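User: Before I run my own analysis I want an independent prediction to cross-check against. Here's the chain; please return only the structure tokens and, at the end, one sentence I can use as a sanity check.
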Amino acid sequence: MNWKRTKLLPLTLIALTMLASACGNKAPQNAGGTATPSAAASAAPTSASAASTSPNAPKQWSKAPDMTIDTNKSYQAEVTTSKGAFTIDLFAKDAPKTVNNFVFLSKEGFYNNITFHRIIKSFMIQTGDPLGTGMGGPGYKFADELSSAHKYEPGIVAMANAGPNTNGSQFFICSGDDCSSLNKIPNYTIFGKVEDAGMATIQQIASTPVQMNPNGGDSSPSMPKEKVTINSITIKEK
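Assistant: Structure tokens:
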């Protein structure tokens, strides 16, 4: 649910506007995992190293990772943050491309030290942008996987996007009942759910004080007043 502040295609913008009015917040979106030409990578996404030349630049790849997960196995993501830890049960059978992407980026350390850049307590918490602005991604985009039996509800983890088939690295976690409004138009790939024991951490993050974003994007405060980060993500396979 990358809530990126890019201008969307007219039809997509209309759909998001309608959805936002239904839940009182702008729908989760991002820049779709796009990257500036200078940051684009030539190395394949399965490479052990990315094509960033600056030590402080986020890793970037030229294409989505090759499929490496086994959908007959179960996967969990153990996430540690500056406000606690939680575990995500990943839906490998329901969203194999998305889970494969998340597993790849997590193992690459892509999410380490990335902030939760958008927080709306009754709705969701959004992260996965290496720039921390809602405009960043891994350098590539991949297709939606929307045919899921799962519904948006507290604890659900889904991709943010800037329109159809623009997934990258940004994702959101439903933190309140307003997230259920997304069920009217399920435009965001659901790929996991936070285990019940970790929801206290989600609520800790969701309770972070927020302010209006000076760059716009939301009609209500959603920009955290303090830095909340993902410290690391460890993938467990069974």
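Sanity check: The chain has one domain: 10-34+73-237.
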